[in-house]
Specification:
Helix 3 packs parallel to helix 4 and helix 5 packs parallel to helix 6. This protein has eleven helices and eleven strands. The N terminus is likely disordered. By secondary structure, the chain is α/β, with parallel strands linked by helices. Strand 6, helix 5 and strand 7 form a beta-alpha-beta unit.
Length: 312
Amino acid sequence: MAALCQRIDYDSIFDYCVREKVKFIYARCFQNANPWLIGLFKRLKKAGIHSVTEIPTYPYDQEFAHFDWKTRMGLKVDQLFREKLYRQMDALVTFSDSEHIFGQRTIRISNGVDFDSIPLHIPINRDPLTINHEPLHLIGVAEVHDWHGFDRIMTGLGHYKGEREVVFHIVGGVHPSRMNSVFMPIIEKYGLQDKIIFHGTMFGDELTAVFNQCQFAIGSLGRHRSGITVIKTLKNREYATRGIPFIYSEQDSDFDHQPYVLKAPADESPIDIQQIIDFMNHFQMKPAEIRKTVEHLTWKIQMQRVIDAILL
């Protein structure tokens, strides 16, 4: 009963907003549009309280293709009510280039980062005379899903015939079904047991230690699988804030032309590991120089753009 009430009883939220004279609400889409949520935002609108909802990825329906039936049913409910819900808002916030989503106007911003919570990358000292011959360590950080496309890196490692050792570190949760049906067959086919390291979920100093062991980061390589072409992922911004070069396959106007980025094709081809090695053999930027390029992407600056679009 308590769980049900949490989903349908929003009186306490409305009362709090009115009592505390809240002027503006920033919500984040959880694919959970329903009649009760519509009722809440309709009441907030009548009370003169402005609101927006951030849609982190758009379109997102295809991301649910491989989820369990219960989650897919939740999406069906969302599809029924989301346009009615967003009509109660002032706008939708998006990291895409879409000017309208679900019949509502958008405010287009970049995903923001918190500089205070992300330490600068400090690579482990290496001999400059032998650095291009030492093992190259790659890192991918994610709660791993199909759209991250890490299998493309694995297959690329399987095809790689060069002499330089390359190791791929995966930090984050991997669902057993993905591990068993996608990753393990690739690892076993190419004998990559000692080339791919699954660290599991890590935070803080433990995560930073793995980052500092690595020289190059892996962004999303499978957004096309979800029907997404343009997106401004948080992971790209976190990598740049740390000051580590990286690869991704979507379109991201903040990074597409940066010298510390390697773009991959948005298809199912294995990632060319030799291309990453060649890129890193000539890469000269320091972590602090990379970090400086994203100073305008702090959450403070991005949120001010939303506030200005609604309240000014």
